Amino acid sequence: MSFEEKPFLILFAITYVLWWIVRRRERMAVGLLLSASLVFYGFKNWQLLPILLIYCVLDWAVARKIERGSRPRFWMTIGVAFNIAVLCLYKYTPLVVTSFQPERAEEFRDWSIPFGISFYAFTGVAYIVDVYRKVHNAEASLIRYTLSAVFFPHLVAGPILRPHEFLDYVRPGQLPKEPLAVTEATWLIARGFFKKLVVANRLGEAIDPFFAHVNDPTTAGAWALPYVYLYALQIYFDFSAYTDLARGIGLLFGYRWPENFSLPYLATNIGEFWRRWHMTLSRFLRDYIYIPLGGNRHGPIRTQANLMLTMLLGGLWHGASWSFVIWGGLHGTYLILHKMWSSTPIASWLNGASGILRAVWLLVAGLLTFHAVCLAWCFFRLTVFTESIECVRKCVEFETSKMWSGTYRDPSVLLALGSYAAILLVAWSGKPRGQATAFHTGFAWGLRFATIILVLVMAPPASKQPFIYFRF
């Protein structure tokens, strides 16, 4: 079930009405939210529920064992190994088998991966490790822990939450009884639907035909770079839309979760990009892989190896394809080059510059970072290596007569992007600079309703563009 589907809207409406009725009766509220979450996850694939529940039971039981002090390291290892092993079984079996026996590829044509398994596996790892490190207490109630792990707004595609960001608020006496920041929540939801249904889906419809035939004669001579640019925008709008919707729905139930994106394409170096892109995954990779490997504590060579291994694992986390490993390897290479560059005198001089020189340097650095990210997106979008290479080739080799022809020129693409820019401009101009007045409140609500109306008017009819990160 996806946020933009009618079944979800019906489930959410029913759940929210019932929550308002029972929200002051804690046990009933927990049961309601847990039941709604299980319906959300199992709506189309009930057979996947046992996998999800086994994760929850084992993670809860292992954390309890760790807290009791009986061989905590052993139980931590068991818990983490289980989470990773099951994830690898479902996600990487086809990749491993077909890499050594390509003739068996047909056996895995109908292989299905439980959607969201990467996210709830990482959530379980974070919980077990945090209990082992004694930075968080184990939850005594299996029901409440399960709710924190499977709550439907963040279950399938994050954000990846730490125990103190959610589990603490489902414990006895802490369960929210009122929504938080309703105006902020409704803005996140309205903005999220616009990003997904109007912008991301429209971009997807414009560029999918090219990527589907990038290695065919039908795209011979075509210029790939505009399509790569638009894919960079599509994946940003698509994933940040999910995060907006998840955070907005969470606020309506009284939970505030961390941001996951902060204008990543304005980054002026690759390290800054990863501090702005999928921030909850970035901090997971840092705290549970990079730092345990040794971080930057053992000299430059070990630091570079740790960076590369972390990004290779981060790439592999995204999917069972060697192209994702290449994507992670490219980002690992970027981070290593950035660290080496940052230690040079000229980098220190440029970073300390001011005036026009600083502005020019930031522009150049931003363009270099964006294009490095776009190069890596070629391997992320196209999971067949030969297609990724062909896409990169067509970015620099093309027929000039076809340079400005292609589906990327669809006027609806510019209309969608321009409309979103206009909405942000209106939102910024109507933001109170001092104490909010009745006018500002009315303006804010008007903008939210207007954004929803625009979604209904501008969303591509019968568009079937699932959230990109649902497959991870």
Structure description:
By secondary structure, the chain is an all-alpha fold. It has a domain at 6-178. It has helices at 6-22, 26-42, 49-67, 72-100, 117-132, 142-150, 182-212, 225-252, 270-276, 279-293, 299-318, 322-342, 345-351, 355-381, 385-396, 411-429, 438-458. Helix 2 (26-42) crosses helix 6 (142-150), helix 7 (182-212) packs antiparallel against helix 16 and helix 8 packs across helix 14. It is globular.
Tell me, rounded to a whole number, the average pLDDT: 91
Kindly state the number of beta strands: 0
Rg over CA atoms, rounded to whole Å, is: 23 Å
Order of helices and strands: HHHHHHHHHHHHHHHHH
State the low-pLDDT regions, or none. none
Largest sheet: none
Strand content: under 5%
Q: What class do helices, strands and sheet pairing give?
A: mainly alpha
Q: What general outline do the C-alpha atoms trace?
A: globular
Count the helices. How many? 17
Helix content: 55-70%
N-end to C-end Cα span: 15 Å
Keywords:
mainly alpha; 472 residues; globular; 17 helices; single chain; 67% helix
Summarize the structure.
With about 475 residues, this protein is mostly helical. The chain has 17 helices and no strands. The protein is globular.
Write the topology of this structure:
Elements: H1 6-22, H2 26-42, H3 49-67, H4 72-100, H5 117-132, H6 142-150, H7 182-212, H8 225-252, H9 270-276, H10 279-293, H11 299-318, H12 322-342, H13 345-351, H14 355-381, H15 385-396, H16 411-429, H17 438-458
